[in-house]
Amino acid sequence: MKLEFKDLLIDQTRFILSDSSPAFANSLRRAMTSEVLTFAIEDVRVYDNSSALFDEMLAHRLGLIPIVTEYAGYTPRDVCSCDGAGCSQCSVTFTMSVEGPRMVASGDLISQDPVIKPVSDDIPIVKLESGQKVVIEARAILNAGNEHVKWQPTTICGYKNYPVIRIDDNCDGCGHCVEACPKGILAVVDGTVCVKDGMDTECSLCRLCEQACLNSGIGEKPAIHIDMDPKRFLFTMESCGSLPPATIIKEGLQFLKNQSDNLLETLEDL
Ligand code: SF4
Ligand code: SF4
Ligand SMILES: [Zn+2]
């Protein structure tokens, strides 16, 4: 198995997984979306809420705010020595006290840990009119997306098979496929069609080029063929900001390794 990064930005990445299988590619996708731990607000104590929102709605909105996550010094609440009561090892406390008229935003949450904080200060929560107030205390804990989507670290996480584009010798360079390609990745060079340099990954596998070639009257088979490499996968992943993309991939792979180690141990014990 091999990973090759095409882009690795602060909040998104595209990478190629090769020498792999559809089962492993899908397991990695699911691990990254559902098994990687992040912080999200779980408990909210409302001291005052005269806004237009019910307490439950306010708590729901707070829970959906992505929180910058660092694992050092923290442990999931269900395995913490406090037995789930909530302590400084498994919870981060936020306080917020705002009086209208103004918009309450994520930046109004004051965290006890300056590292564990909302990914942006500008996420709107509720608009307060003059005299309205919101005073709350909230606790964020580590958990995974399989428990609730608010702990999911990715906003986009998907893959496609790596496109394989073949051109036969009977291509006459008519250019019909070039015009039909919605991604603009084909070109006619020296009387034959070819894929522009480094653009093969942009192919959406739509096969409009094959159809255009057939429509050009070339015969029963097109001169251009679109296939999928069954062992190579092109992943696109975007983080919600709680973790860097590289950490999400690493944690997803670590989860799969732990699962397979556990399975091996169980099988050895049988
Ligand atoms: S399959 Fe679609 S995107 Fe890919 S080369 Fe053909 S027309 Fe372009
Ligand atoms: S439509 Fe067919 S024959 Fe014409 S350039 Fe494309 S592949 Fe070649
Ligand atoms: Zn604890």
Radius of gyration: 25 Å
Contiguous runs where pLDDT drops below 50 for at least 5 residues: none
CATH class of the largest domain: Mainly Beta
Bound molecules: iron/sulfur cluster, zinc ion
Total strand segments: 12
Span between termini: 29 Å
Please indicate the count of domains. Answer: 2
* Individual helix count: 5
Short description:
Helices cover 22% and strands 35% of the residues. The protein contains five helices and twelve strands.
What does this protein structure show overall?
This protein is an alpha+beta fold and 270 residues long. The protein has 2 domains: 2-33 and 158-237, Gyrase A, domain 2 (2-Layer Sandwich), CATH 3.30.1360.10; 37-152, DNA-directed RNA polymerase, insert domain (RNA Polymerase Alpha Subunit, Chain A, domain 2, Beta Complex), CATH 2.170.120.12. It is 22% helix and 35% strand. The chain has 5 helices and 12 strands. The strands form 4 sheets. The chain has a 4-stranded antiparallel sheet. Strands 3-8-4-6 form a 4-stranded antiparallel sheet, covered by helices on one side. Strand 10 (186-189) and strand 11 (192-195) form a beta hairpin. Helix 1 packs across helix 5 (245-269). The chain starts with a strand and ends with a helix. The model has no long low-confidence stretch (mean pLDDT 96). Residues 165, 180-181, 183, 185-186, 203-209, 226 line the site of one iron/sulfur cluster (SF4).
Which SSEs are present, and which pair or pack?
Layout (H helix, E strand, L loop, with lengths): L1 E7 L3 E7 L3 H13 L3 E12 L5 H9 L27 E9 L2 E4 L4 E2 L12 E5 L4 E11 L10 E14 L8 H5 L5 E4 L2 E4 L12 H8 L8 E16 L5 H25 L1
Antiparallel strand pairs: 1-2, 2-12, 3-8, 4-6, 4-8, 5-7, 9-12, 10-11
Helix pairs in contact: 1-5
The structure holds iron/sulfur cluster (2 copies) and zinc ion (ZN).
The site of one iron/sulfur cluster has 17 residues, from helix 3 and helix 4.
